[in-house]
């Protein structure tokens, strides 16, 4: 992968006497990557969009390290969407994992030509020159030249085929704490989010959608809305066949956001509710239980050994049912986008995790070539998977085309919560057979749940991305899925089954998809097994982690699984949390761990339940993402992932009644607030392994650790989220 | 009926109807986008600005009810040098950053009114400000830093 990409690194001169490092895929088209100006300022473009995961810091740091750039002179620039950058997007905690080598090589190539330029100027061998903080120094004579002074000469040189990369012990920037490049802009209110985009003559739009999921517009009486001061247009939007591309609705477009919101209240829409009106959370639960009662009808995902025989022969069989609700993304910045349409071309500014998807779907809906869609990525007020979809981008594009004006479309919080694409509601029946020593000899997992693949008419199987995290060792038939990701388990007799729970309720990816469920379900059940067998939570887990040889699959997407690293974070979290040390009455500790997207996390929750009141005192997290790139970023993503997981476990729940989402704002869709946020102790494994992504990794174990701690404190097993004690 | 409003030290004429929430006047008419839209119901605090020195939720404050000078994050300090902003930078608080201007404005107003406030008191005041990224650990650290700084300043004086 990296060798072929290297071939397309190019060095060129800029018009102002600077140096430009470009990178592109075949056929080579230069694309800005790094620019060194004559005054020594270094621009580094970040190809991936920033959602708060810190990619705008970590990727440029990798380039700057190999370049030996003075970070104080580095300006980070958010790249626009451009095919020449290759894949662009933020999802699957993938950026650092996949960009590590390419970014190092880009920095090293630029450094090599700068050194060569200095060596030629001084007529000395390049090997006698060192670099540090944007300065080349000749060791023998002590002569120095800044990168800016060398840029023009260096730009005329050819970079080496294989620029030498630094040894880990020579890293100066990587592994340190580096604050975000937009920190000052954020705290002064100048950082531009999607909703802050302003275009000359821009109109503002809000959209009324059918309160019943999958309903359509039957007819609209828009006379009163059109008469509202400031309202310019009322536009009926037809949905697209794939509802993640565009949902139907009626848009009110006005001179201001407030006028649009007020005009919307005067719309009289008759809806064609369809069959979705019969849907409810209770009906979903009934149907799921019917599916779980009929495992013969399920899709068999994996079966090693003979689970039924092993269960029949087990000393003890443990059985439990778990369930998790729909969850909304509730990004603090509601979904929004700005589009302009002129002469068959569409220009877009907005918060997008997958700008390429946005371009493709906009082109499809507007009937223009993708090349006629220009996409500018703004900073995002959170993503959590919501902005992987482009429905709101298409809304803006449709309205821009219809009105001929730049249009900003915004969801109110009620729209955002009631017309989200939710984390699927799912139900899990687990059985485990234990031998006389309490060791697991059989594992049987049957999941029934809504599917985002099925919802968006994807050809891929319904279960994939819902419980794809669960796989058994040495099952070659599952190689492809395992390559996407895996929850490693070495159990001689192991079976996984899935039943698709059909529903019109929209579903989508939610931070750490499938993992955010399994980190609760599997980790809680393992705790049940540990208690039933009288064994330590570490031993129960360690037994099934297996060896690296059990899991020989790997790919570019996720680093190979190393069970020793998973064991290490579990023991580290337990040790740092003083596992085993006595706690006051009513207190308890619980542990959980998970392997997500190539990185490892284990967490211990410490809680008390006194007079029926739950208090989470602290969460101790041990994480391993290989070589740490930005220490501040890994720490922040651990703290944030843990608290997001806690918020989900304590409060997160979307319910459906008469086909409608019940919750509408932060009063009934609760999020964790600061007085209830516990301390989060972060312990990062020092590692020389290649770095892996970290945006989602700390979230999955939190709910499991919390539920297990509540059991330790009270003897009550939490098998359903959000947590309810009574 | 045009209204006038003092915003960040400048007298501004406003064309928006008086029932318009201050948030949309700031964002859509005055192009001051530092105050954010999060919920429209005063439940998340992302829109927090100061009116006559007090923190208010601009999304539920009609223009016609505004009595006194308005300060937004753009006017808190010209360059991010307010002690609360400095503490937020020192702790590298923001992740996505969307809620942070509201967090800072809420903390700044409370500390101005209660210069001897404890960390815990400020944290209780920030209960009204949601952060979906979970930056609460660092917000708390930043608050601790500000509180320690004002104590040190008090001791010197």
Strand order, largest beta sheet of chain B: 4-3-5
Structural class of chain A: alpha+beta
By DSSP, the count of extended strands of chain B is: 5
Mean pLDDT across the residues of chain B is 95
SSE map:
The complex is a heterodimer of chains A (726) and B (157).
Chain A (H helix, E strand, L loop, with lengths): L1 H5 L2 E5 L5 E5 L8 E5 L5 E5 L8 H13 L6 E5 L16 H28 L6 E4 L2 E4 L5 E3 H8 L28 H5 L15 E6 L7 E6 L1 H5 L3 E7 L11 E6 L2 H8 L3 E5 L8 H12 L6 E6 L2 H6 L3 E9 L11 E7 L2 E6 L4 H12 L6 E5 L13 H13 L3 E4 L2 H6 L7 E9 L5 E10 L2 H4 L23 H6 L8 E8 L14 H19 L3 H9 L17 H14 L10 E10 L2 E12 L2 E12 L6 H21 L4 E2 L2 E2 L17 E6 L15 H15 L12
Parallel strand pairs in A: 4-5, 9-19, 17-18, 21-22, 25-28
Antiparallel strand pairs in A: 1-2, 2-3, 3-4, 6-7, 7-8, 9-12, 10-13, 11-12, 14-22, 15-20, 16-17, 16-19, 20-21, 23-24, 24-25, 26-27
Helix pairs in contact in A: 2-3, 3-4, 10-11, 15-16, 15-19, 16-17, 18-19
Chain B lengths: L2 E5 L2 E5 L7 H8 L18 E4 L2 E4 L12 E2 L1 H4 L6 H8 L9 H14 L5 H7 L10 H21 L1
Helix pairs in contact in B: 3-6
């Amino acid at each position: 992968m990296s060798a072929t990409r290297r071939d397309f690194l190019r060095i060129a001169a800029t018009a102002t006497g600077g140096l430009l490092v470009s990178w592109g895929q075949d056929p080579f088209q230069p694309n800005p990557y790094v620019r060194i100006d004559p005054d020594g300022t270094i621009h580094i473009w970040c190809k991936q969009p920033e959602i708060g995961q810190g990619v705008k810091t970590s990727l440029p740091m990798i380039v700057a390290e190999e370049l030996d750039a003075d970070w104080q002179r580095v300006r980070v620039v958010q790249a626009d969407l451009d095919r020449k950058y290759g894949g662009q997007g933020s999802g699957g905690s993938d950026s650092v994992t996949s960009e590590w080598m390419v970014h190092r090589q880009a920095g090293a190539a630029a450094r090599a030509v700068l050194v060569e330029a200095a060596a030629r100027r001084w007529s000395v061998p390049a090997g006698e020159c060192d670099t540090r903080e944007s300065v080349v120094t000749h060791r023998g004579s002590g002569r120095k030249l800044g990168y800016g002074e060398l840029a023009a000469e260096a730009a005329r040189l050819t970079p080496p085929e294989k620029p030498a990369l630094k040894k880990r012990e020579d890293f100066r920037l990587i592994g340190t704490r580096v604050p975000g490049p937009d920190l000052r802009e954020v705290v002064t209110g100048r950082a531009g989010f999607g909703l802050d985009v302003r275009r000359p003559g821009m109109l503002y739009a809000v959209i009324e959608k059918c309160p019943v999921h999958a309903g359509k517009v039957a007819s609209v009486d828009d006379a009163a809305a059109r008469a509202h001061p400031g309202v310019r247009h009322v536009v009926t939007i037809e949905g697209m066949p794939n509802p993640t591309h565009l949902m139907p609705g009626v848009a009110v477009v006005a001179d201001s956001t407030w006028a649009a919101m007020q005009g919307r209240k005067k719309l009289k829409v008759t809806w064609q509710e369809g069959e979705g009106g019969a849907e409810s959370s209770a009906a979903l639960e009934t149907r799921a239980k019917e599916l779980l009662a009929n495992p013969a009808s399920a899709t068999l995902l994996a079966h090693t050994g003979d689970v039924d025989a092993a269960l029949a022969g087990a000393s003890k069989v443990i059985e439990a049912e778990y369930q998790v609700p729909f969850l909304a993304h509730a990004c603090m910045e509601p979904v929004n986008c700005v589009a302009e349409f002129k002469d068959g071309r569409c220009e877009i500014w907005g918060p997008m995790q997958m700008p390429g998807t946005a371009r493709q779907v906009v082109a499809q809906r507007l009937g223009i070539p993708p090349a006629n869609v220009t996409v500018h990525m703004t900073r995002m007020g959170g993503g959590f998977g919501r902005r992987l979809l482009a429905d709101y981008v298409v809304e803006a594009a449709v309205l821009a085309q219809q009105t001929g004006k730049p249009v900003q479309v915004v969801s109110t919080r009620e729209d955002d919560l009631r017309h989200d694409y939710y984390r699927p509601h799912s139900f899990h029946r687990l059985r485990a057979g234990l031998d006389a020593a309490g060791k697991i000899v059989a594992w049987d997992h049957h999941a029934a749940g809504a599917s985002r693949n099925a919802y968006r008419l994807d050809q891929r199987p319904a279960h994939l991305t819902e419980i794809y995290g669960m796989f058994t060792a040495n099952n070659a038939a599952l190689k492809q899925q395992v390559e996407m990701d895996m929850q490693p388990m070495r159990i001689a007799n192991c079976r996984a089954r899935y039943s698709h729970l059909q529903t019109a309720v929209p579903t989508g990816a939610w931070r750490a998809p499938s993992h955010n469920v399994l980190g609760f379900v599997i980790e809680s059940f393992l705790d049940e097994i540990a208690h039933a067998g009288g064994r330590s939570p570490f031993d129960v887990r360690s037994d099934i982690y297996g060896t690296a040889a059990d899991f020989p699959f790997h790919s570019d997407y996720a680093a190979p699984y190393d069970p020793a690293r998973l064991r290490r974070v579990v023991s580290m979290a337990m040790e740092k949390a003083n596992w085993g040390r006595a706690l006051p009455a009513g207190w308890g500790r619980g542990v959980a761990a998970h392997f997500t997207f190539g990185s490892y996390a284990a967490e211990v929750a410490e809680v008390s339940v006194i007079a029926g009141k739950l208090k989470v005192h602290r969460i101790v997290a041990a994480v391993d993402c290989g070589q740490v790139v930005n220490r501040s970023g890994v720490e922040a993503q651990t703290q944030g992932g843990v608290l997001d997981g806690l918020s989900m476990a304590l409060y997160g729940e979307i319910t459906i009644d008469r086909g409608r989402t019940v919750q509408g704002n932060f009063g009934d869709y609760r999020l964790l607030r600061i007085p209830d946020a516990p301390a989060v102790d972060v312990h990062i494994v020092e590692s020389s392994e290649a770095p892996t992504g970290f945006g989602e990794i700390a979230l999955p174990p939190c709910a499991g650790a919390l539920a297990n701690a509540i059991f330790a404190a009270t003897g009550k097993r939490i098998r359903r989220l959000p947590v309810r004690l009574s | 009926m045009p209204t006038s409003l003092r915003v960040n030290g400048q007298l501004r004429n406003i064309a928006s109807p008086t029932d318009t929430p201050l948030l949309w006047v700031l964002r859509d008419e005055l192009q001051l986008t530092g105050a954010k839209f999060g919920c429209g119901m005063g439940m998340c605090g992302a829109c927090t600005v100061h009116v006559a020195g007090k923190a208010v939720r601009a999304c539920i404050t009609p223009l016609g009810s505004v009595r006194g000078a308005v300060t937004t994050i753009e006017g808190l300090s010209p360059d991010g040098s307010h002690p609360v902003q400095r503490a937020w930078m020192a702790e590298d608080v923001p992740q996505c950053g969307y809620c942070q201007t509201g967090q800072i404005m809420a903390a700044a107003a409370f500390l101005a009114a209660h210069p001897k406030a404890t960390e815990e008191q400020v944290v209780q005041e920030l209960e009204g400000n949601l952060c979906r990224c979970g930056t609460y650990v660092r917000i708390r650290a930043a608050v601790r830093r500000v509180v320690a700084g004002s104590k040190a300043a008090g001791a010197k004086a």
